[in-house]
Amino acid sequence: MLIADRYELDELPLGRGGMGAVYAGHDRHLGRRVAVKFLGLPGGPDAELEQRFIREARILATLEHAGAPTLYDFGTYDERLFQVMQFIEGVTVADLAAEHGPLPVPWAAAIAAQACAVLSAAHALSICHRDLKPTNLMLCPDGSVKVLDFGLAMLRETDVAQFTRAGQILGTPAYMAPEQIQRGVAGPRSDLYALGCVLHEMLTGRQLFTGPTAYTVFEKQVKESPAEVDGVPGGLNGLLAELLEKEPERRPADANELFGRLAVFARDLPPLPGYLDEGANPGRMYARVVGRVP
């Protein structure tokens, strides 16, 4: 499939989400791999909503951070909105946890801390991710983490209501903060709650809240508090409990604070054979020196 007379997409999608499918593709103009995500609208085309998406895409394009894929292009094709993003090589945290089981504490903290750095940059631009989850965190061969799929960040609360009326759940129940579930409102601390769910999953190897239906999971998110995780330092368990507080104001103040508290545990990272490049790596070489800057 060729869209915009430029992007040639693979026949089968890389994956599907609540808002559409993601395809790997090739940019004929610049000769590079890209990822293209289609965003489905409830009830078909909506000119006003499309214009808002375009405005929000321009804001999202200002998110220039090494941990966030670059937004290359944006438009409509066959009455569907699409985003063209940087293609990222690596393994998702979902696949990593499924194959590895519980991750070593230093790696779980390091992955979460890197995600915080990206969220800090996004939140400074008033961009909330809204759908942070293990499949949207990619561990790259150089050990860096990319936060994927800011598609829901391009929606406003009025747009969320439109999708909800159409019977679509915006977000993933297992990682949605109580305020998203109860009031349809997401802020920076909602992203921190979602990251808490991901961190818990990395430390235990299993999803925090499960159930036969989305509404069963919603009820647990709103009412249940998880137990401490065995084998995890007390300070990290305490931080995890704060992240998973039901009231947003009881969570860490922001992603900057959370980064500092996680970084304490992200030391002496053990090898992850099969997932990371061995030996010298340009990305790690670069980061090693940057990390020494006061």
Automatic annotation (TrEMBL):
Domain Protein kinase: 8-265
Listed Pfam families: Pkinase
UniProt keyword terms in alphabetical order: ATP-binding, Kinase, Nucleotide-binding, Serine/threonine-protein kinase, Transferase
Matches recorded under SMART domains: S_TKc
Origin: domain of life: Bacteria
Gene3D superfamilies, A to Z: Phosphorylase Kinase, domain 1 (3.30.200.20), Transferase(Phosphotransferase) domain 1 (1.10.510.10)
Residues bound to ATP: 37
One example GO MF annotation: protein serine/threonine kinase activity
Protein name per its UniProtKB record: non-specific serine/threonine protein kinase
